[in-house]
Structure formats: structure tokens, C-alpha cells
Amino acid sequence: MKLAYWMYAGPAHIGTLRVASSFKNVHAIMHAPLGDDYFNVMRSMLERERDFTPVTASIVDRHVLARGSQEKVVDNITKKDKQEHPDLIVLTPTCTSSILQEDLQNFVNRASMSSDSDVILADVNHYRVNELQAADRTLEQVVRYYLEKAHRQGNLNLSLTEKPSANIIGIFTLGFHNQHDCRELKRLLQDLGIMINQIIPEGGFVENLHELPKAWFNLVPYREVGLMTALYLEKEFGMPYISTTPMGVVDIANCIRQIQKQVNIWSPILLGKKFDFEPYIDEQTRFISQAAWFSRSIDCQNLTGKKAVVFGDATHAASITKILACEMGIRVSCTGTYCKHDEEWFKEQVQNFCDEILITDDHTEVGDMIARIEPSAIFGTQMERHIGKRLDIPCGVISSPVHIQNFPLGYRPFLGYEGTNQIADLVYNSFTLGMEDHLLEIFGGHDTKEVITKSLSTDTDLTWNSESQLELNKIPGFVRGKIKRNTEKFARQNNITKITVEVMYAAKEDLSA
Amino acid sequence: MSIKISETLTFECETGNYHTFCPISCVAWLYQKIEDSFFLVVGTKTCGYFLQNALGVMIFAEPRYAMAELEEGDISAQLNDYEELKRLCVQIKKDRNPSVIIWIGTCTTEIIKMDLEGMAPKLENEIEIPIVVARANGLDYAFTQGEDTVLAAMAHRCPEQKTEIEKKIDDKSIQELFSFLPLKTKEKSNKSFTFKNKFPLVLFGSLPSTVASQLSLELKRQSIHVSGWLPAQRYTDLPTLGDKVYVCGVNPFLSRTATTLMRRRKCKLIGAPFPIGPDGTRAWIEKICSVFNIETQGLEEREQQVWESLKNYLNLVRGKSVFFMGDNLLEISLARFLIRCGMIVYEIGIPYMDKRYQAAELTLLQETCKKMCIPMPRIVEKPDNYNQIQRMRELQPDLAITGMAHANPLEARGINTKWSVEFTFAQIHGFTNAKDVLELVTRPLRRNNNLENLGWTNLIKIQKR
User: Fold this and answer.
1) Does the residue A19 lie in any domain?
2) In CA terms, which of A373, B1, B9, B198 is 20 to 30 Å from A420?
3) Among the options A116, A123, A299, A355, which is catalytic?
């Protein structure tokens, strides 16, 4: 047992649901007790989804506990098949159902006989993997299922596309700025003259998955989700993959160079020419992206040597650390990730760019570390933002888990050349701005005059009796002043001089009339 | 599908495939209500992630609740439950020193049959902090019923009413028992008031303290003294209970608590409609008064006056139709109030319907329908959200009161929605707060009145496939 107030990564089934509901026309059925379908709330609220989240629950209740699910799961699957005609139904176990140890695979087998949809059982262990690992696993499972199916049916198309093309793997719902990143990646590949073969899982149809091997290579922008799929495709079909995250000017160039290497394996044979992306990299770096120029500009000088702390998922924390350290000259005192399963890779990535490394999923440990280091700015998740608030340290949010404000409507990619601009803005705005910082130091603060009274009106002839005073103190601080003013206004209008609890409520009622 | 609207109340029961919050969400408001408590939810990551996401910002205010997160070793019984819980509770005691620790049992503890009730008394003795066990799990309960399980468990901890004190209510010794009132108030109210209820009255249901004192005040106007609340602001102030004590509920989802109070604590239950809306509040007070043989004073005028002040809102809602998808058990009372406001209710979805505990409320609903000449709505227990959405498509209600999972998709399809959870967190009880209910109900209507002329109510594409 572990005493826990907060967690960075959710339970496994959330990962499975995120992948399933990112595909088009795929329905997930959870084998879960009432109330476990809060994933629908998250998706509907955070992503502001217009469509009903294609996730329902086959409810586990007392009866199920006593007698087993029996026909219930099968019925729910076939019912959903009739109602919505999905291409695929993913039966998703939850932590509750996994300890019931029912033979869900048997339900799946039976249901798939009577329904037109394909039915699979998500193969994740709830007590061993977290949300991100489960998402990675489920995506691989779905891809494998459809490629094996195509192989059996003999309609697997292994010929490469005429022009160079790529699959983008790992863009999905509730991902940190994923939609924007996806658009930016598409633009990047288009600029390079590379077609997009498929983007999975977001917006993809499972019926098209058998065409995945037609691409020349796979691009996996995030460490957390997609690598397993890419590895599978490499092993089965010899498809190369690129897993360098194109975040920050240096890594974008690295990523593009790897793409160049990949396309140049086939293009001399198929197209009779070789690609050279160096002029493109140079042009973008020096003139299109503003980030390289920004770090040269005198503004950025003020950031030199300032201390920062970075924490987040492996992809974002590693990339941001590298950007801060090599592209902006900021001193990263500590960098860390909650992706404990990816510890080795993470350490290797950030080793020379920071003073210390913290691998933990305990937010109190992160809080203590920040309090000890006292950086000028934090780059982390929403949790670090709150730690920052408490310690009065500014924080830029760079990774999940996030709130609704991190699903912006405006275009805010983190990847690609536009991403470098966004990151530069984020970093710059997070530190106290240069001159302001100096002036504060010299003159010792903005406003040293102490506030004598918080209320706007000076004391009046009105008296509050002790009971009403007590009642007033019960009202939450942020509305107390308003209630006090309204009550006094009401009292004055009605020539009341002594304010009692009754008067307070009368004033509240009067307000509506 | 044809939709019949019948003359009598009809009860239906569907598949139970509906969206609601897990009952462990009750810790969100109960830990704030009971100031000296600590809630320990014994469950898995799934429970923790729910609390973290559903309760949003509150989690960062150093809440007095935490997860005892079960790991693989706990599930397979490689670890000793008792020792593990002891370790965590000792830590909680050290860090927070609460007056009570409330263990919330979850689905997982049910399935692995962790004997929380058996362990609690033993551990209680060992660490010298009361431990209350409530099984608020999704296998048995929905959303607000979580509070019901906690209060029912707490009812066992209320001190026993001593039998000799049934003489007079303004007796000094009795006054000591009413320790929930500040000392000065006690003396003052004693001097200026004589209460007419011969027996103590305890109200049950967790309300924000301002709302609780508003309701107490309404009863005081009728010379009825409220001798305590379950729960009180502090665990140490739980009211005394006994066979001379009358109890009355303020919320429709408290049927287990009511049963426990009657059967185990021998209290007398006053079955009344719930004080939601001015009509409900009046009926609630009238019922309590009638039990104590007290004639009500100026209650009708008071109700009238409240209706008068709601005029602007009533003009907005009159004739509009509502569809309750159902998820928090407040539905019957809210529907009854909205019908009285002149709205038409097509369907009242509700997770669970206790016809005995809600009897008075159901009667009032029926009377209200007759009075307003409006067909009786259908009451759908354990609704099926998919079917409901089909029905809604046909009925096109002016307002759907629904959970957050469906709100945005319905809005995109041109149906106005109001999140049902807001009714659980807003102040909706008593005369004073009738306005707040209508404020909530009319918000989507008012918002959409402003946007109406823009011509983009439907915001979804026709599916290609």
C-alpha cells in the first residue's frame, strides 16, 4: 500500500481508451463498475469533443460479483455492434475486472462470432503498466491484429509508394499539444517533399492499417507511444523508423538528416535522384524559425546562467532540457521524469546537460527538490505549476498531465520550426523579464506601501452583531467582501443599523428581485 | 420509438448503462464539511485518477484526503492488510492529527474481501483515533449515495441521548448538548425564544454551513429548535441520538442513513419533501411543524414572496421543456420544483429510486403536476444513456440536465445542457437559495439567447461513412 495524493500517469485502461477512441469508428467497452467511465468526462471536457466519446461500460455490479458476467459482456458487445456498427470493438479490462479473473478472451471469442465488428481484448496488466505503457501496447496490438488479418486474407500491400512517404505514429487524444504537433509535422514533411502515408491512431481508420507498410519509413515523434508499433513494423516488414523528437532547432535538424538518410536509400533507385535537405535546414534555422536568432539577441543574454528545473514525461523533459542548456544557455539544475520505465534512455539523453537527474513518480519528492534548488523558473507539468505557485516561482507547462488551459484553441505546436518559436516564447515569458528583474533588485520591489484597509468604504454607522459577524466569517474569503458590501447596502436602503443573520439572508434574497 | 406521456407516475427500469460519478467523490465535499476529518480511500490508481481529475483544483489545496493505493502485493495478499493500513494511518496521525479517519472502501476492497470493518476497531484502539468505515463503491452505489454510506456509518458514532432529559427543551442542562451553536447564541436564543418542539430534532445531510444555518433559522421562525446536524462541522460535535429524537433528511439520496437512524438508533423519521425550491422548503417545514403539532406562522406569505422575487427567471423558463438524464438522485426534487416553475419535464432519469424514503416528495411531484396541469413525467430508474439520447433526439427538449460526458456532444447537436454535478455543489436548499437553482437552470438558456442570431447552433459534420 502506498499513501498517494496525486499521480503523474493514470491507470492502464486510460491509455487503452485513449488509443481506441483516437481511431475513427472504433468503440471501446470497459468491463468496469459504475463510475469508472470518467474517461468520457476527461475527453469531453479537456478536448472539448463534439462527438460522444465512443466508450461505454459493461457494468460490473453486485450480481456480476456473485454470478460472473455471464452473457452481459457478450450482450453489450453485440448491442453496440448493432447500434453503432463500429469497425472494431476493444474490450477493455480495468483494475477491478482484472482481479475478478473472468475469462474475457472467451467473451471476445463468442461476441466476435455474432457481430460484424472485429472484437479484441486489450492485453494490458493493470498492476504492472501505467497509462502511457498501456497506450503503447494497445496501439501495437491493434496494428498487429490488422496486419495479421490482412496477411491471412492475402491483401497485404508491401510495395512502396512511388514518392517517398512516411507514417506518423503516436498522435492521439488527450496528448499534450498533439493536434498542433501533428499539423506542424505534416507541414515539415510536406516541405521536404515527403507524402504522409498514414497518421495513427488519431483520425485513422483501422480498415486502412494494412496499408501501413507502403510508407518508406515511420516517424515516432514521442517516446511514450508508438515505439512498440515501430519496432514491430521494423521486425516484420523491415520498415525503418526515426524516433528523434523534432523539438528544438538542433534536434529538428538531426531528425531531418535521419529522414534524408532514409529516403536516400530508395530514391536513387525509384526516383533516380538524391535528396539534400541541408539548404532547407539552414534556411529554416536562420531565417524562418526565430528561435536561433532569439538566443543570439541581447534579450536572451539576461537568461544566461539562470537556474531552471525541468520535469515531465521522458520526451518533453529531455527535449526541453537540451533546448534550455544548449540553445539558450540556461543552467538546468535538475531535470527529471516520471517515466520510470524509460529511465535508462532518459539519463543517457540529458546526462551532460544538467547538474542532477531525478527519476520519480512521487510529486512530493519533486516539490522538495524544487524547494531545495530554488530555481528562477520551473518547466514541468500542472503539478509543478502548483508547486511553483506555492513557492512563488514561475512555471511553464511543458508536459502532461495538464488542465484544460493546456488544450489551447490557437496554434501552439511544440514540434517543428513553429514549435521552436512557441518554446522560446514560453521560456522567455516564464522568467521575470530582464529589465524588470534588474529594477526590482535595485529598488527592492514594486510597491512598498502597506495596505492599511482592504475595504473600500470607511467604517460606518452599521454594526454587525456577533452572530452575523461569525456567519460572515464562514463565507469563503473571495466573496466575503462582496457579501459584506451588499448586506450593508441593503441595510442602509432599509434603514437598518444593526445587522443580524436575518438581515444578511434578506439582503441575499433581495438581490434577485 | 413512440413516447407516451401518461397521467400517473410511471416507473421504468432500463439497463443501467449510464454515466455517473463514482461514489468515492463524496470525499470531495465531506472532507471540507467535516473540518477535523481525514478521508483515506482504500483503492487503486483508477480511484485516485478519478478523484484527481474530477475534483480538479481542490487537490492542490493540501486536502485532508489521500489514497491508500493498493499494489500487486496487496491484491495477492502477500502483504498484511492490517499492518499496511496501520503504517499509513500512523503517518496520517503524525502529519495531520485528525479527530477521525474515515476509510472509504472501494470496488477492489469488496472484491478481494478486505475486512475493513473488522480491522477498524482493532486499529482504532491501537492508534487512538476513531476510524469510521464506509463502503462507497461503484459496485453498489452511484455518486451522491457515497455521502449516504458515510453518514450511515457515522450515525453509529453519535453519542446516545440520555433518557432523563426529556423534561423541557429550554432546560439549561440540555442546552449544553447543543454545542454546535456558539455559546453566545445559545444564551441569547434562550432568552428571546421559547421553542415549541418538545423533542429534539436532528437534521441529516451535508450542507455548506451557511445553508445549514439558513435552514435552522427558517425552523427557528416557526419556534422549532434544531438540536443538531449529522454531519456537524466537526466530528467531535456529532449530535446525540436516541429513541426520543426526531430526524429529518434534507437530501433525497440519504435513504441508508434514514434507515440506520430509524432501525439502529431508534430515532423517529419525519418523511417530508426536501427543502429544494420554495415549494419544497415550505412543504418540508410544514411537515416538520405538523409532527410537532405546531401551527405554521406566515409560511405561505414567505413562499409567495420568494416566488415574487423569482419573477424574471420564471418568465424565462415558463413552457420550456427539460430532460433529466439522471446521475445524482436530486432529480425528483429538482423536477418537481421546475414543474412548479412552469416547465414541462419529459423524463426524470434517476440512478436509484427509494419510493419509501422519497414518498412525500413523489406525492408532492404528483400534486404539482396536477396543479400545473402538466402531464406526469416518466421516471426512469437505472437509465440507459444510449436510449435516452435517442429519445432526446425525438423530443428535442429545451434543456437537458446531464453529466459532463454528454454535455459538449449534446451542445454540438443544438441541445442546451446544464451539468448535473453543479446542482450537487451549488447551494440549492431553502427559500434563500431558490434563486440559485434557477440561476443554474437558466444559464444555458440566457447564454444561448445571446448567441441565437448567429446561426450556428448545430456544430457537427454529417458523418461520411
Assistant:
1) yes
2) A373
3) A299
Lookup result for grid cell 450482450: A75
Residues annotated within the binding site of A for substrate are 434-435
Which DSSP string do the residues of A158-182 spell out, in sequence order?
-SPPSS-EEEEEEE-TT-TTHHHHH
3-state secondary structure A291-314: HHHHHHCHHHHCCCCCEEEEEECH
Domains of chain B from N-terminus onward: 23-141 (3.40.50.1980), 201-292 (3.40.50.1980), 299-454 (3.40.50.1980)
State mean pLDDT over B165-188. 48
Cell of B254: 440519504
Q: Which of B351, B357, B355 is nearest to B247 (CA)?
A: B357
Side-chain half-sphere exposure of A371, counting CA atoms within 13 A:
11
In a domain? residue A119: yes
Identity of the residue in A96, A126, A475 whose CB atom sits nearest the CB atom of B210:
A475
The model's pLDDT over B251-278, given as tens digits with 9 standing for 90+, comes to 999 999 999 999 999 999 999 999 999 9
Count of domains forming chain A: 4
Q: Are A221 and A191 in contact (CB under 8 A)?
A: no
Domain membership of residue A151 (yes or no) is no
Q: Are residues A309 and A281 in the same domain?
A: no
Distance between B204 CA and the closest CA of chain A, angstroms:
20
Domain-embedded: residue A155: no
Shared domain check, A279 and A262: yes
Q: Which phi and psi angles does B247 have, rounded to 5°?
A: -125, 150
ipTM for the complex shown: 0.87
Residue B211: other Cβ atoms inside 10 A: 21
Half-sphere exposure of A106 (CA within 13 A, CB side): 8
Known binding-site positions of A: 36, 434-435
CA triple B236-B242-B245, angle to 5 deg: 100
Residue written as cell 455490479? A61
- CA–CA separation, A384 and A382 (whole Å): 5
Which regions of chain A are under pLDDT 70? Answer: 432-460, 477-478, 512-513
Residue A299 known to be catalytic: yes
What is the CATH number for A20? 3.40.50.1980
- A270 and A380 in a single domain? The answer is no
* Residue carrying C-alpha cell 505546436: A413
Q: d(Cα B357, Cα B255) in Å, to the nearest integer?
A: 6
Distance CA A376, CA A399 (A): 19
**Is the CB of A4 less than 8 angstroms away from the CB of B48?**
yes
B143 in Cβ contact with B254 (< 8 Å): no
Q: Which domain holds residue A97?
A: 12-129
Selection from A465, A487, A478 nearest residue B182 by Cα: A465
Phi and psi angles of residue B419, each rounded to the nearest 5 degrees, phi first: -65, 130
Shared domain for A304 and A372, answered yes or no, is yes
Query: CB–CB of A57 and B435 under 8 A?
Result: no
Tell me the C-alpha distance between A34 and B101, whole Å: 25
Distance from CA of A1 to the nearest CA of B (A): 5
pLDDT band at B10 (very low <50, low <70, confident <90, very high): confident
Using the beta-carbon criterion (under 8 Å), do B139 and A466 form an inter-chain contact?
A: no
Q: How confident is the model at residue B183 (pLDDT cuts 50, 70, 90)?
A: very low
| Same-domain pairing of A297 and A276 | no
Domain check: are A230 and A194 in the same one? yes
Whether the pLDDT of residue B341 is over 90: the answer is: yes
- pLDDT tens by residue, A63-85: 888 888 878 999 999 999 999 99
Residues of chain B above pLDDT 90, percent: 73
What's residue B54's pLDDT? 73
CA B50 – CA A4 distance, rounded (Å): 13
Would you say the pTM of this structure is higher than 0.90? no
Count how many Cα atoms sit within 13 Å of the Cα of residue A132 in the half-sphere of its side chain: 22
